């Protein structure tokens, strides 16, 4: 979409489609037809607006972050990137940046759209791809360099992210 929220056909629900069918196949005439159609249009509008209103309420409930908390969350991100192979625990990371773990978790998700360790996982996989591109490491060496202790776990995660086994990816770069 182009930045604006709006109703799209693929967002219709079965209940909405029933209301549209009832509008299209109205069994009444005259004043009764007019009242029936008006009520169905109002019903359809209610069905369209309800999820949008729920979304707006959810956005208002979002945790309010202070500017200094945002700076601390960005600092936490930098700390994670600096030690991909051996990251601190969530509690240790929160303490290191001066936040409690709840505020770090909630704020991190708000700012980056992922959990702290979901973000770490993504960064590890991106870094592993870059290391494989460079061609200076074996697959096992790359897995260790980005903090995977089990080569099979690394291969499965890499395959889920990039759609190919890391060994196949490495061979394609040579």
TrEMBL record:
The keyword DNA-binding is assigned to this record: yes
InterPro entries (UniProt xref): Homeodomain-like_sf (IPR009057), HTH_AraC (IPR018060), HTH_AraC-typ_CS (IPR018062), PchR_regulatory_protein (IPR053142), Tscrpt_reg_AraC-type_HTH (IPR020449)
Organism of derivation: Gloeocapsopsis crepidinum LEGE 06123
Domain of life per record: Bacteria
SMART domains found in the cross-reference section: HTH_ARAC
The keyword Transcription regulation appears for this protein: yes
Residue ranges constituting the HTH araC/xylS-type domain according to the UniProt record: 74-172
Keywords: DNA-binding, Transcription, Transcription regulation
Protein name (database record): Helix-turn-helix transcriptional regulator
Pfam families noted in UniProt: HTH_18
């Amino acid at each position: 979409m182009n930045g604006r929220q709006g109703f799209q056909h693929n967002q219709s629900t079965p209940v909405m489609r029933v209301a549209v069918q009832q509008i299209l196949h109205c069994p009444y005439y005259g004043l009764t037809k007019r009242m029936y159609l008006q009520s169905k249009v109002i019903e359809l509008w209610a069905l369209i607006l309800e999820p949008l209103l729920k979304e707006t309420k959810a956005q208002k409930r979002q945790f309010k972050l202070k500017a200094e908390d945002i700076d601390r969350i960005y600092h936490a991100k930098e700390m994670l990137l600096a030690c991909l192979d051996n990251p601190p625990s969530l509690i240790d990371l929160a303490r290191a940046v001066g936040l409690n773990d709840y505020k770090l978790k909630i704020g991190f998700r708000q700012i980056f759209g992922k959990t702290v360790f979901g973000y770490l996982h993504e960064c590890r996989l991106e870094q592993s791809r870059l290391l494989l591109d460079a061609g200076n490491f074996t697959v096992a060496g790359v897995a260790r360099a980005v903090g995977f202790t089990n080569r099979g776990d690394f291969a499965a995660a890499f395959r889920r992210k990039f759609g190919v086994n890391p060994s196949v990816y490495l061979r394609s770069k040579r």
